[in-house]
Design brief:
The protein has 267 residues and is an alpha+beta fold. The chain has six helices and 15 strands. The strands form two sheets. The chain has an eight-stranded antiparallel β-barrel. Strands 9, 10, 11, 12, 13, 14 and 15 form a seven-stranded mixed sheet that branches. The longest helix has 24 residues, at 3-26. It starts with a helix and ends in a 7-residue tail after the last strand. Mean pLDDT is 85; it is low at 5-19.
Length: 267
């Protein structure tokens, strides 16, 4: 065998080993961290990356009710693609020990850098991940009486309301009191009407009675905090109102339960 053929064969073998090592090292669940301010919003919205086989990568899996944005990665080019026609992210990656250094290549924030840290079994709090995009911090009450909990008939039309104290990064402008969050914005109970009108504009009128309203309230929320929200639904004769609860454990999985609050509405 000529020296050139030996060199080419050696290159191909080392490339193959390198790619196999990449796949072995990448497979698993990773937590994203922003290196600069430009990347904070992206991390709060998507937060995690899962590498599930030789080429599959998923961005933001199980953040809220999202199944994530599917994509693929190439150990040869060290690139990851997420999304499609309406949403597209191209990232270059570099493995450094137990960390992944990521640089976004495409617009709107080219050259934005992130660090990802691999999360092993038992290291995740899935409730924290679920509420990553929210501006208020939420630790749901635990449902201990499963007979009193139920499922929601249809989550596809569910509208979500959050009640909790603003996370530290939002306290400067919003304070530390229990706050209402509607569609990723801190709001007041007086804004519920306007918010609900926007909700109904997105749903055909014949399906308005199928809209389910789900309240995610932190354990520290008192009935006095919840009352203005319940008053709004009672005054507008809306009965498909649920409060979310969780299972005991949130490590590696989050089990959600719901209670219908219509019994709270007199007459």
């Amino acid at each position: 065998m000529s020296e050139i053929k030996k060199a080419v064969l050696f290159f191909l073998i080392t490339q193959s080993i390198s790619c196999q090592n990449d796949r072995a090292n990448l497979t698993g669940h990773w937590h994203l961290k922003a290196v600069s301010e430009e990347g904070r919003e992206f991390v709060s919205e998507f937060g995690v990356i899962d590498f599930e086989n030789d080429t599959l990568a998923i961005l933001g899996k199980n953040i809220g009710f999202s199944s994530g944005f599917y994509g693929h990665y190439s150990p040869e080019t060290k690139e990851i693609w997420f999304g499609g026609e309406c949403f597209y992210v191209l990232v270059h990656y570099k493995i450094e020990g137990e960390k992944l250094l990521l640089t976004q290549i495409n617009d709107p924030e080219p050259n934005t850098e992130f660090i990802a840290e691999k999360c092993g079994i038992g290291c995740c709090d899935k409730q924290i991940e679920f509420f990553l995009p929210q501006k208020v911090a939420i630790d749901l009450p635990v449902c201990r009486d499963f007979g009193s909990c139920e499922s929601i008939p249809d989550l596809s039309l569910a509208q979500l309301i959050y009640l909790g104290r603003p996370k530290p990064e939002y306290q400067k402008s919003n304070g530390t009191d229990i706050s209402l969050e509607l569609h990723h914005a801190i709001a007041t109970a007086e804004e519920l009407g306007q918010w609900n009108e926007k909700v109904k504009k997105q749903v055909p009128e014949q399906h308005w009675n199928q809209i389910n309203y789900v309240i995610f309230a932190d354990q520290s929320v008192l009935m006095n905090d919840l009352k203005p929200v319940l008053d709004f639904f009672q005054q507008n004769r809306i009965n498909q109102v649920y409060i979310a609860m969780r299972g005991e454990e949130t490590t590696d999985s989050l089990m959600l339960h719901y209670k219908n609050l219509s019994h709270q509405f007199p007459g």
